[in-house]
């Protein structure tokens, strides 16, 4: 008899569906004959506590693409703050496209050097999109932590630079960054100047692979079989080995691996492989640039 294939929807491995099928078979075995002849699965639902399972994620970045050469893979950028916050010390000077957010003009028609205040506040929108080609779900959602490379900091990223992705096919994260400038500029006597506030628009596209290891957080994982009409629990199934549940569903994206704990007890984890594409559009490297030149008409300079 051929082994069953993993429940898939295109590129998705449905972990919940596999657990539901396992729990239903166990439930039928518990109630026995003749009751199982009259049991209908659609009359019940399965209550699971995902907190009883542990998920560890490791991100591998396979290739990066710049906006200038979208079809040519390049090495991962190092020390690039692509989404939130100015960081000129760690941002390459040639990164991104400079965009002027604000400008102001000044004239100094006095014989003395003059100081002016260049002040403004502007906003830019940043976005990150994640799209999966291969993935797993917990039913209607997923729970992948995507670790960003190097010093790339994303909107909605955690303190460790991780994106929490919950949508099964694609998800977009958006944020607004506020740029403030309040600086003093000096204009020479008989000169005019134009001051610019600029930031650099950065675009990074990358392909990634996330290896997720799912294991029992406790010694067992409970699944409650409940009646849909009354919520009554008719059976509780305790999963004590993920090998029993998933060993028949192994494939390129799902592998059952043997593990050993600190007390040398043998157990099993499930290793899941997700693949996708990451794209970020953001802003970095705030700069104030002052361009100064001599006034053409010096006759109106006041004494």
Structure description:
This protein is mainly beta and 303 residues long. The chain has a domain at 57-211 and 277-294: Proaerolysin, Chain A, domain 3, CATH 2.170.15. The protein is 9% helix and 53% strand. The chain has helices spanning 15-31, 35-38, 242-246; strands spanning 8-9, 12-14, 44-48, 53-66, 97-108, 114-137, 144-147, 162-165, 170-187, 191-216, 221-227, 233-239, 254-260, 266-294. It is elongated.
Which key phrases capture this entry?
single chain, 303 residues, mainly beta, Proaerolysin, Chain A, domain 3, nine-stranded mixed sheet, three-stranded antiparallel sheet, disordered N terminus
User: Low-confidence parts, pLDDT < 50 over ≥5 residues?
Assistant: 1-10, 73-95
Q: Beta fraction of the residues?
A: over 45%
What is the helix fraction of residues, given as a range? Answer: under 10%
Q: What pattern of helices and strands is seen along the backbone?
A: EEHHEEEEEEEEEEHEE
Largest sheet: 9 strands, mixed
Number of strands: 14
Number of helices: 3
* Overall pLDDT: 83
CATH topology of the domain at 57-211 and 277-294: Proaerolysin, Chain A, domain 3
Indicate the overall shape. elongated
Radius of gyration, CA atoms, in whole angstroms: 29 Å
Could you say which structural class the secondary elements and strand pairing correspond to? Answer: mainly beta
The CATH architecture category of the domain at 57-211 and 277-294 equals Beta Complex
CATH class category label of the domain at 57-211 and 277-294 = Mainly Beta
Distance between the termini: 102 Å
């Amino acid at each position: 008899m051929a082994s069953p294939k993993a429940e898939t929807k295109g590129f998705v491995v449905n972990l919940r569906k596999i657990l539901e099928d396992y729990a239903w078979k166990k439930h039928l075995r518990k109630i026995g004959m003749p009751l199982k002849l009259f049991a209908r699965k659609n009359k019940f639902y399965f209550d699971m506590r995902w907190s009883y399972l542990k998920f560890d994620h490791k991100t591998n970045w396979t290739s990066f693409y710049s906006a200038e050469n979208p079809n040519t893979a390049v090495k991962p950028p190092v020390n690039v703050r692509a989404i939130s916050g100015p960081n000129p010390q760690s941002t390459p000077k040639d990164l991104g496209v400079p965009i002027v957010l604000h400008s102001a003009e000044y004239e100094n028609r006095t014989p003395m050097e003059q100081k002016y205040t260049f002040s403004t506040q502007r906003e830019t929108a940043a976005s990150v999109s994640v799209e999966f080609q291969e993935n797993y779900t917990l039913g209607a959602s997923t729970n992948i932590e995507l670790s960003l490379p190097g010093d790339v900091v994303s909107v909605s990223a955690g303190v460790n630079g991780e994106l929490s992705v919950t949508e099964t096919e694609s998800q977009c994260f958006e944020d607004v960054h506020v740029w403030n400038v309040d600086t003093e500029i000096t204009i020479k006597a008989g000169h005019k100047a134009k001051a610019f506030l600029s930031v650099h628009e950065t675009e990074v596209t990358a392909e990634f692979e996330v290896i997720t290891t799912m294991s029992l957080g406790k010694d067992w994982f409970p699944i409650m079989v409940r009646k849909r009409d009354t919520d009554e629990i008719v059976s509780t199934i305790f999963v004590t080995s993920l090998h029993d549940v998933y060993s028949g569903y192994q494939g390129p994206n799902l592998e059952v691996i043997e593990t050993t704990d600190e007390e040398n007890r043998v157990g099993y984890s499930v290793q899941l492989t997700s693949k996708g594409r990451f794209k970020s559009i953001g802003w970095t490297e705030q700069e104030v640039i002052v361009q100064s030149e001599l006034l053409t008409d010096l006759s109106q300079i006041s004494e």
